[in-house]
Structure formats: C-alpha cells, structure tokens
Amino acid sequence: QVRLVESGGGLAQPGGSLRLSCTASERRFSSYIMGWFRQAPGKDREFVAAVRWGTGGTTYADSVRGRFTASRVRPENTPYLQMNNLKPEGTDVYYCTGGSSWPPQDTWGQGIQVTVSS
C-alpha cells in the first residue's frame, strides 16, 4: 500500500501563503486520485481539494476555490497544495490522501499542522 508523508505546514499570517507537498512511496496508476482533507479539533474531516494523477484535473471545496491550487509533478509522484490568501479559519491539520475512486480516502498521511494567525 502506498505511504504518504506531508510536509510544508507551519505558521502563516492571514493573507499569506503556504505550500504543502506529499511524498508518495510509489508510482500510481493514471486513474489514481490524490486528495487533501483538513480537520479542526472537535470537527469532522472535510474535503479541501483533489488532483487526478493521469489528467491533472482538479476539484475544490467551495471554501478554497480561487485561493488554493492542487497539482502533481511526475515522475516524482509529488502532489502539491498551494494555499494563498490564507484565513484564520483555515487553521487545521491537513491530510494528504490517495484513492482509486471518489472520494480519494483509501490511504491517508499522518497529517500536518497549518496555523493561520497574526
């Protein structure tokens, strides 16, 4: 089973930017979907964005559309989540995920903290 490890989190000011990356342990089939989810304390995990490995097609939650960009770089197997114009309500643990179908939740990374605060 593929293993996923997130990096790039940390502290950003409101209006600032961060870029998350997710190292995958092996190459995936072209139909594979890489996703990003987030979770605040005491709340359910919510979908943020996803990118299809083969086509590069993307899907976004309404709350981040226009501010976040999901992408993937081949052949390094690296998905990215560029987060611009960050808001304090975006303070969450962010998870990289992968799956063969929608929603991509077969495999989860360990999560990484993103804090948006002045």
Structure description:
With 118 residues, this protein is mainly β. The protein is built from no helices and 11 strands. The strands form 2 sheets. Strands 2, 4, 5, 6, 9, 10 and 11 form a 7-stranded mixed β-sheet that branches. Strands 1-3-8-7 form a 4-stranded antiparallel β-sheet, with no helix packed on it. The protein is globular. The mean pLDDT is 92.
From the structure above, extract its key features.
mainly beta, seven-stranded mixed sheet, globular
Largest sheet: 7 strands, mixed
Quaternary structure classification: single chain
Low-confidence stretches: none
- Say how many strands there are: 11
Question: Mean pLDDT, rounded to whole units?
Answer: 92
- Helix count from the secondary structure assignment: 0
User: Helical amount among residues, as a percent range?
Assistant: under 10%
Whole-Å distance between the termini? 40 Å
* SS class: mainly beta
Shape: globular
Q: Which strand-content bin applies to the residues?
A: over 45%
